[in-house]
Amino acid sequence: MKVTLIAGSNRANASSTNLLRYVESLLEAQQIAVHFIDLSELQLPLFSPDNWDFHPNVKHVLEAIVDGDGLILATPEYHGSVSGALKNALDYITGNQVAGKPVLSVSSAGGPLGVSSLSHLQTIVRNLHGINCPEWISIGYGMNTIGPDGTPLDEGMKERVRNTVNSFVGLTLKLTAATGAVN
């Protein structure tokens, strides 16, 4: 199984990216192949529907999405929604690249939770015909909830993240078994 992770912040050392690195470590501990894309390092030009001759960075992201059996998207919460960097990346995707794939949404916010960004992200996933994982991960950055490596500091939060990742892995295995398309 392969999972593509996209860190949707263009900020260095973003809490959402750090949390996604922790999720990556949980997947790798289960011997799951991971393709990690950090949009702060792999910048994409602004999407335009007038230009379908994509930049090499865009092609890289799209190939990673198509190649993965599942997708995990992480975003900071900006003004109650997803980051512009992640939204721009998602605008390049067509429905057939995500259709039927499980998608886990992850968010960090300056307040207690990033629920608005997760709701928006799941709406985008539905419009791309992806299958939203019934769980999501949301942390409040202002509450010192994760360490510098992304590991949740609270044991309850750490367990919730592990359980959510396991739920996502289970969903991915079920969906790939149903279609016979494990990468």
From TrEMBL:
Q: Which domain of life is it from?
A: Bacteria
Q: Name one GO cellular component term.
A: cytosol
Name the record gives this protein: NAD(P)H-dependent oxidoreductase
Q: In this protein, which residues make up the domain named NADPH-dependent FMN reductase-like?
A: 1-141
GO MF terms held by the record: FMN binding; oxidoreductase activity
Please state which protein family the record places this protein in: Belongs to the azoreductase type 2 family.
Looking up Pfam families in the UniProt record yields: FMN_red
Membrane-traversing stretches = none
InterPro entries listed in its UniProt record: Flavoprotein-like_sf, FMN_Rdtase-like_dom, NAD(P)H-dep_reductase
